[in-house]
Amino acid sequence: MKILLLLILLFAFTGKSYSQQQTKKEARPEDQIRQYWFVMLIKGPNRNQDSATAAKIQEGHMASINRLYYEGKLKVAGPIWRRR
User: Fold this and answer.
1) Angstrom distance (rounded) from CA 57 to CA 30
2) Max alpha carbon distance in the chain (Å)?
3) Which of the 8 DSSP states describes residue 37?
């Protein structure tokens, strides 16, 4: 009977020690949750720029996207569906 009690206690403490080791092993910084933002830009009703101004705005927009990408702040960009 003493041997059975000793085995039960041994397994009880071994399981706790094993689970604590697993928790420490899984807490790596690269596995932590990261926060991402989703921004959806749509056309507004007031789009009265001429083609030269619209091209300049688009050029600045693309420069900003490229800058954010090379800084590592932008992961995905571009149209996500086709216009119908």
Assistant:
1) 37
2) 92
3) -
Structure tokens, 1: 């009977």
Which residue from 40, 46, 34 is spatially nearest to 72, judged by alpha carbons? 34
**Contact indicator for 26, 65 with CB cutoff of 8 Å:** no
Which residue type, as a one-letter code, is found at position 78? G
Give per-residue pLDDT as tens, 8-60: 766 676 765 555 555 555 656 666 777 788 887 787 888 888 999 989 998 99
Domain positions in the chain: 2-70
Say which residue the tokens 């932590």 belong to: 32
| Beta carbons of 68 and 74 less than 8 angstroms apart | yes
